[in-house]
Design a protein that fits this description.
Blueprint: H1 3-6, E1 13-18, H2 22-31, E2 37-43, H3 47-56, E3 64-66, H4 70-78, E4 82-85, E5 98-101, H5 106-118, E6 122-125, H6 128-144, E7 149-151, H7 156-169, E8 174-180, E9 185-188, E10 193-196, E11 199-202, H8 216-226, H9 235-248, E12 251-252, E13 261-262, H10 267-270, E14 285-294, E15 304-309, H11 313-321, E16 332-337, H12 347-356, E17 369-375, E18 396-402, H13 414-417, H14 444-455
Parallel strand pairs: 1-2, 1-5, 2-4, 3-4, 5-6, 6-7, 8-14, 9-14, 12-14, 13-14
Antiparallel strand pairs: 8-15, 9-10, 10-11, 15-16, 17-18
Helix pairs in contact: 5-6, 5-14, 6-9, 6-14, 7-9
């Protein structure tokens, strides 16, 4: 694809950015190098954080102005400078064409996206916590208004959907598609340890580098057991893969995904059906892996992949001989993108929305699955489901479930439960439902979800 031909652009797309975390900051920095994009407004609840993000991105102080009213912000934008605001509502009537929602807060993300659409702005949704709950209805509302609602290139859902679409256009049959966990498992052969982030596990007497002489499933189970002290999946992983399922119609194999700890070269052998030596009960699914590697090997952290069938074995044997990743029988191959660049590559989603009126996500997402919440210990009435920095909530684990209409006994999506309290006690092993959760009846997220259920007749 020749992107210079695809985006033969004239003029500048004015963008409003909500949220200055890692994604927002990287977009701010890269946008300064893109002549067709101007971030005209930067919003964060904390003005000091927003200003610092702009300065770290290379904007000079004289080109920034803190604004408290819509009139102030309009004047700053008209002068060619960047307005910095703490109230996202100020963005909605400003002269911007695309809003990038990167707050990371599910309720706020829903309100911001809906308000932007109602005010004639395209939405690039970075906040996956919102997208996995009400993305389908926001997409449909945008379409009905002649606008675009899209996930963001630079994050795994959009990148994986793009890789899947590329493969389907070429006629490849996809066996499995997914992402790699955000942190690799780093093997140190000298100390016989494996580290993931700041945590390390030792395994004297065990050889975890090789799968061993048994089946792939046995080798993967052994790694999982020996390395159980290291986190092997997160709710964010399940959330991102739920978005892909909703966008593509692919299925899933197990509620918490397999998430094997595997070397890159092992993946064509592992991420396929049991009939051909893999770990999947069925093929045509979305899953994830945890990349096991040495420190001197390429990282796969946060990358995306597809496993495809190889009907023309001669072709794939030839490619295998050239070093491409094909299984031993030349029946399955892996094609992968070993990186995601956060906001540094979101421009393709912004420009596709503003100039091509196209999403970089699915053509018609539907609410096929949710990320549910299951208690792993007893919980008491009044307990608050507080989300930690890694998205975890004490006492529960996430799992992918078929989407169901809102009802007292229906499973509640994970990101609708967060920051709410329990009405009743919950037993270990119980799936949390809408009827168990106290909530604000005026919540935009909850109202949108109810409207989504009705629209798609769940």
């Amino acid at each position: 694809m020749n992107f210079q031909k695809l985006f033969q652009l004239k003029g500048v797309t004015n963008v409003g950015l909500i949220g200055t975390g890692a994604f927002g900051r990287s977009f701010l920095g890269q946008s300064r190098l893109i002549p067709n994009i101007k971030v005209s407004v930067v919003c964060d609840q904390d003005l000091e954080i927003a200003e610092n993000a702009c300065l770290q991105a290379g904007l000079v102080p004289e080109n920034l102005k803190v604004c408290h009213t819509e009139s102030e912000a309009n004047n700053v934008i008209a002068s060619g400078k960047t307005a910095v605001v703490s109230d996202a509502r100020l963005l909605m009537n400003l002269p911007i064409e695309v809003m990038v929602e990167a707050s990371g807060m599910p309720g706020a993300g829903a309100f911001h996206a809906l308000s932007a659409i109602e005010n004639g702005k395209h939405v690039v949704m970075v906040t996956k916590e919102t997208d996995c709950v009400v993305g389908p209805i926001l997409n449909r509302r945008a379409q009905n208004a002649g606008l675009v609602y899209t996930p963001a290139d630079g994050d795994q859902p959009s990148l994986l959907i793009g890789l899947i679409a590329w493969a389907e256009i070429l006629g490849f049959e996809i066996v499995c598609a997914g992402k790699a966990g955000e942190l690799d498992f780093i093997y140190d052969p000298d100390s016989n340890t494996i580290a993931r982030g700041s945590r390390t596990a030792s395994f004297a007497g065990e050889d975890l580098w090789e799968l061993g002489g048994g089946s792939a499933e046995q080798g993967i189970s052994r790694r999982r057991r020996v390395l159980e002290s290291l986190p092997q999946f997160s709710v964010a992983d399940l959330c991102e893969m739920a978005i892909v399922i909703n966008s593509t119609g692919f299925g899933y194999d197990t509620p918490r995904l397999h998430a094997p700890i595997a070397r890159i070269i092992e993946m064509p052998e592992i991420m396929c059906g049991r009939a051909v030596g893999g770990i999947l009960q069925k093929e045509g699914v979305i899953d994830m892996v945890n990349c096991l590697r040495r420190a001197d090997e390429i990282s796969f952290a946060g990358g995306v992949f597809i496993i495809i069938k190889c009907p023309e074995r001669e072709t794939w044997q030839f490619l295998k001989n050239k070093g491409h990743l094909v299984n031993r029988t030349s029946t399955r191959a892996m094609i992968f993108r070993p990186y995601h660049l956060l906001g540094a590559e979101i421009a393709t989603s912004v420009l596709a929305a503003s100039h091509l009126k196209l999403s970089t996500g699915g053509t018609d997402p539907k609410p096929r699955v949710d990320v549910g919440v299951r208690a792993i210990r007893g919980m008491q009435q009044g307990d608050r489901l507080t989300m930690e920095h890694d998205h975890s909530i004490a006492g529960v684990l996430p799992e992918i479930l078929p989407a169901k209409k809102m009802a007292a006994d229906s499973p509640i999506p994970y990101y609708m439960a967060v920051d709410n309290s329990l009405k009743y006690t919950v037993a270990e092993g119980e799936l949390l439902t809408y009827g168990i959760i106290e909530h604000d009846p005026e919540s935009c997220l909850w109202k949108l979800r109810r409207a989504q259920d009705e629209l798609f007749e769940l």
